Amino acid sequence: MSPEGERLQKVLARAGIGSRRSVEDQIKAGRITVNGHLAVLGQRIDPAKDEVAVDRSRVPLKADLVWYLFNKPIDVVTTAADTEGRPTVLDYVETPQRVWPVGRLDMDSEGALLLTNDGELTHRLTHPRFGVPKVYLAYARGTVGNRALKALAGGVRLDDGMTGPARLRLVERWPGGTLVEIELREGRNRQVRRMFESLDHPLKRLVRTAVGPVMLGHLRPGTLRRLGHEEARSLYRACGL
Question: Domain spanning 67-129+217-238: which CATH class is it, in words?
Answer without folding.
Answer: alpha beta
